[in-house]
Amino acid sequence: MPAAIITEPAELLAAVNQQKRMGKRVGLVPTMGALHEGHLSLVKRCTSEADFTVVTIFVNPTQFAPSEDLDKYPRNLERDVALLNAYPVDVVFAPSVETMYPEGASTSVNPPAVATSLEGELRPAHFAGVATVVLKLFQLVPADVSYFGQKDYQQTRVIGDMIRDLNLPVKMQVCPIIREADGLALSSRNAYLSEQQRLQATALSRALFQVKSLYDQGESDATLLLQAANQTLADASINEIDYVALVNKQTLRPVEQVDDDTILLGAVYVGSTRLIDNVLIK
Prior knowledge:
Strand order of the largest sheet: 1-4-3-2-5-6
Low-confidence stretches: none
Helix content: 25-40%
Mean pLDDT: 97
CATH topology of the largest domain: Rossmann fold
Number of strands: 9
Distance between the termini: 41 Å
Order of helices and strands: EHEHEHEHHHEHEHHEEE
């Protein structure tokens, strides 16, 4: 049976509350659409664990800076719904911007401390926009469990701390990164890459996994490991690097000595396309 497409918040909340009254376990998969196998892995996990699955498709303007790619971000609701209908998804929530942010709306969430570094330094308003829209979705879909991808690792830490700090009654499941056969992490923005840039972009995952390999061989000095990663990127002519960082996977603070609680995160430009990726050291 095809998923019901809902655009109005009140209708969505009523549908979810009806399921909750029946004792059903509700799962939520928030997305911005332009779905790929990474998103669909979240959907597959949710539909296998929950009795009632809601997938949201909303390109959230408040997490984009004026100079970013809000206007060209890929949107194809018909295609996305067709992909979702291959799974037992119950509801697709696809609201308009005006519905999510009515005229006069001015409330926002001040994100937790883990939002201040890395992406937070480079995109100062980004995580306030993320935290605000996710909290709104949690209000409209009072789910038992929500599903997010590891590729946006700092985002998962922001949302996890928000859930903890605001005592939100929802569990978060972080699901593994889905990669192409050559290692490139799946991303909606990969569609921007030319064939040559697509090949060049594989250097990011290659650099990250090289660090993991060196750590597995016994190297733990963060400076030396980051030098190796940066050299791999330079060899691929990736010269615009926002960051390559070894940080504690909970606090996101930089480490000098790498251990099993470290994560390596990278953000680079290939052409005009910004790509992010990460690898857990353990």
